[in-house]
Design goal:
7 helices, Naphthalene 1,2-dioxygenase Alpha Subunit, Chain A, domain 1, 18% helix, alpha+beta, elongated, Rieske Iron-sulfur Protein
């Protein structure tokens, strides 16, 4: 399988209305459109006639009409010329579907499993999109290690002077990489501690698993009693973060955020009124990540020559699976073949 063979969230469904929209996946331009009956079409964004962008055209019934000469194309890519009816034309097409508030796209030849995002019993807080001006691997690196949280984030993560006390553990399969972090949390303030249900001396748990078909990470966040792990915070979070390569130097991150409250209160355990505040806070924290990655001195994806810490093992593990599972490579990436020395 190659990069285009996996499902990718491309566009919020609410943005695809009467006009087609141009997007890009792994450097391939795609024209998305919604027909009169509501069917979603995804065509290579170049008219086979004179190379006009099909995303600049308009939807006419069940077809997308090119702005330049009025040629029309169905969702299957089959085209017609009004001036030369017997001329057969075909635009490359992709499989598309609408789910979880997004338009998803993949190649029409592949048959991967569609990712399951729904969380029964959990409250959907928000869905966010952020664009990072960096390659896929470099963008992912930031979200797959916890060491940056003391200096980058406001309330998320761990205290800088207690990072030595944070434990990290890695588990891997051929198709996943799991990272489990636990340690003394940042100070949230008395009110927030009460609302979330955090007690003095508790630790923050950041447990995530990255999947590679499609490319996404599921994060679980909660606080717990280090002496009795069954005693957990009253509010817990789960994030689904999908990484979509726009091109070699641009990555879009789409995040679904869910929360669960164990407080015996109405309206989702009392968290519904705080939905707007939580959305703004997550968006703010994500923008801090984006700013850090955008301002790296180098966006070279090769890890060779870097001095990596005990928190960075996932960087190499991810690259191995990105190359083998996501890109469909038969060999490991050069940076993954290198024996990386991780500081203890």
């Amino acid at each position: 399988m190659g990069m285009l063979d996996h499902w990718h969230p491309m566009l919020p469904a609410k943005k695809l209305r009467r006009k087609p929209v141009g997007v890009k996946l792994a450097g391939v331009p795609i024209a998305l459109f919604r027909t009169a009956s509501g069917k979603i079409g995804a065509l290579n964004d170049i008219c086979p006639h004179r190379r006009m962008k099909l995303s600049q055209g308009e939807v006419v019934g069940e077809k997308l009409m090119c702005r330049y000469h009025g040629w029309t194309f169905g969702c299957d890519g089959q085209g017609e010329s009004p001036g030369t009816p017997k001329l057969q034309a075909c635009a490359s097409n992709f499989e598309a579907r609408e789910a979880n508030g997004m338009i998803w796209v993949k190649s029409k030849e592949s048959n991967p499993k569609f990712p399951e995002i729904s969380m029964p019993g959990w409250f959907h807080m928000c869905t966010l999109e952020h664009t990072i001006h960096a390659p896929l691997e470099v963008s992912m690196d930031n979200f797959c290690e916890i060491e940056h949280t003391p200096t980058t984030h406001d309330v998320f993560g761990y205290e800088l002077d207690r990072m030595r006390d944070v434990t990290v553990r890695f588990e891997q399969t051929e198709n996943t990489v799991r990272v489990i972090n636990q340690g003394p949390p940042k100070r949230l303030g008395r009110l927030l501690n009460v609302l979330v249900g955090i007690k003095k001396g508790w630790v923050f748990n950041d447990d995530w698993t990255t999947h590679f078909s499609p490319l996404y990470t599921i994060y679980d966040h909660w606080w717990s009693d280090p002496k009795d792990p069954t005693k957990k915070s009253k509010v817990q979070w789960r994030l689904f973060m999908f990484y979509t390569p726009v091109d070699e130097n641009l990555t879009r991150v789409t995040t679904w955020s869910y929360a669960k409250s164990f407080w015996p209160l109405p309206i989702h355990g009392g968290i519904w009124p705080f939905r707007g505040v939580m959305r703004k806070k997550l968006d703010y924290e994500m923008k801090l990540d984006v700013d850090i990655v955008n301002n790296l001195a180098s966006h070279d994806v090769n890890l060779e020559g870097m001095k990596l810490s005990r928190f960075d093992k996932a960087l190499a593990l991810n690259r191995e699976r990105i190359n083998k599972v996501y890109r469909g490579g038969t060999e490991q990436a050069k940076s993954s073949r290198t024996e990386l020395q991780l500081a203890e």
